[in-house]
Amino acid sequence: MDAFHGTAQPQVFISRTALLHNVRLLRQSLAANVKICAMIKADAYGHASSIIADALTNWSMDQIEAPAVDALAVVTIDEALVVGRTSVPVIVLRPLESASIAHQRDALGSALHNGCTLTVATAQGAQDLARVAIAAAVRVNVQVMIDTGCAREGTPIDSLPRVLAAIESYPSLKLTGLCTHFVSSEEPGNPLSVEQLRQFTSATASYAVHNPEVLRHAANSAAVFFWPSTHLDMVRPGISLYGIDPTCRPNCQRPLRPVMKWLAPLVMIRQIKKGATVGYNQTWTAARDTRIGLVPVGYADGYWRSFSNRAKMILRGKPVPVVGRVSMDYATVDLGDAPEACVGDAATVLDNDPLSPASVYALAELAGTIPYELFCRIGARMRRAAVDPADSQENASWSIQTSTSAAKSA
Q1: Catalytic site includes residue 318
Q2: Is residue 349 a contact partner of residue 364, using CB atoms and an 8 Å limit?
Q3: Would strands 318-323 and 312-315 be described as parallel, antiparallel, or unpaired?
Q4: Strand, helix or coil at 115?
Q5: Which of 15, 26, 13 is nearest to 255 (CA)?
Q6: For residue 168, what pLDDT is reported?
Q7: Which of 129, 185, 306, 391 sits most deeply, having the most CB atoms within 10 A of its CB?
Q8: Which of 274, 280, 299, 330 is the catalytic position?
Q9: pLDDT class for 214, splitting at 50, 70, 90?
C-alpha cells in the first residue's frame, strides 16, 4: 500500500471584494438617505469580525468609499471589545439589565470609553446604565429595543413611554435609536411582518417627529429586499453582506457574492483495493480499485458528521465525493475520478460559487439547516485570511501554502 504524505494548513479565505460588492448591491435597494448598520455578531457569522470590520470601515472599491457602512452591530459587549474603536458607531444589541451590568462592570466601562451604543429595554436598565456612565464620566449613546412579536428581547410597546422617560431623565444618557426585530421577513406578504411594522411605526412616530436625530431601524437582510416600507432611517443586513440570499437559495435577481471560501490540502493519498472499507464503522466500501485522499477537516472544525458519504469537495475543478465517516479531525474523499489529484492540492471544502455542489447552500441542505449555522460552526482551528480586493476577482486563484513529501510504506 502506498501512502504519500504532505503538510499544510487549511484556511478560510474572506474576500473583501465580494463583501464590498454586496454592500453596493444592498445600497441599490435603499433610498439615498437610508443608513446601513452591518451585522458582525457571532464573529461576523464565522467570517472573522476583525477582518470584516476592517474591510467595511477602511477599504474602498469602485464607487464605494471608506467607510462602506454607517454603523456596525454586535450582540454582546465582549464582541464589541473585540472590534474595538472604529470610524463608525458600534451598536451592542443585547439589552443591558441590572444583572448583566453588575457582572460586566469592567467590560462595560471599556465599551463606554470606546463610544459604543448600548441597548436598554427597561426603565431600571436605563437607570443602572446611567449610574455607570456617571461614574465613568461619559455620556453614553443608547437605543431602545422594542418587542413587536418576536417575544425574545425588548420592551413591550405599552412600556415604551416609561423607558423613554427614564432615558430622558438622565443627562448621562443620549437616545440615538429605536429598533425592533422581524420574525418572518424572508416571506414576502407575511401578515405578521405587516403587523410588526404597524406596531413599531405607530409606537415611535410621534417621538420620531420631535426627535429626528433618533434613528429608527428594523429591516434585516430579507426586509431590505422584500419590504422597502421597513427601511426607515437605517437597515441592519447580516447574511446578505456575506453573499448569501436571505431565502437561503441562490437567486440570479440578487447577484450576491459569497465572501467565504474554505480550502484544505490533501495531506495524504492512499491506494485501496476493491472491497476495502474506509473510516469508522466501515460505512463505505470501495466498488473498485481507487485512491483515497485525506483532508484535515472534521466535525471539530465545523465540517459536519452528517456529510459522511453525502457531501462533495472540489479538486482541480472536479467534484469528488466524501466517503466514509467524517471524523473529529479528518474527512476522506474518493479520487477515483480525479487521477491527476496529488498531495498538496487544495480541496475546496466550502465553495464561493453559489451553484457548486460544495456551496454553503448545498451543504446546508445536506445538513438540514441554514447557511447561517454552517458559517457559525466553522471552528477556531480554521485560520481566517483576508483576500485583498486586487487578488479576489472572479478568476483570481485562491491558494494555500503547502509543502509536500512522499513516503512509501508497505
Answers
A1: no
A2: no
A3: antiparallel
A4: coil
A5: 26
A6: 96
A7: 129
A8: 280
A9: very high
**Chain CA centroid to CA 289, Å:** 41
Question: Any idea where the domains of the chain sit in the sequence?
Answer: 2-12+259-408, 16-242
Q: Could you report how far apart the first and last alpha carbons of the chain are, in Å?
A: 5
Average pLDDT of span 30-39: 97
CATH architecture assigned to 2-12+259-408: Beta Barrel (2.40)
CATH architecture of 16-242: Alpha-Beta Barrel (3.20)
Residue 30: enclosing H or E segment and its boundaries? Answer: none
Q: CA-to-CA distance for 207 and 133, rounded, in angstroms?
A: 24
CA 274 to mean position of chain CA atoms: 42
Query: Looking up cell 466500501, which residue turns up?
Result: 285
Burial class (CB in 10 A: 0-12, 13-18, 19+), 328: exposed
pLDDT (tens digit, 9 = 90+) per residue, 177-190? 999 999 989 888 88
For 84, phi then psi, to 5°, come to 75, -165
Active site residue 280: yes
Three-state SS string across 347-393, please? EEEEECCCCCCCEHHHHHHHHCCCHHHHHHHCCCCCEEEEECHHHCC
Q: State the residue for C-alpha cell 471599556.
A: 110
pLDDT tens figures, 62-104: 778 889 999 999 999 999 999 999 999 999 999 988 667 777 8
Helices (H), 171-315: 191-210, 221-226
**134: helix, strand or coil:** helix
Q: Which of 35, 41, 45, 318 is catalytic?
A: 41
The x, y and z cell numbers of residue 27, run together, are 445600497
Beta bridge mates, 5: 268
Confidence category of residue 390, pLDDT binned at 50, 70, 90: low
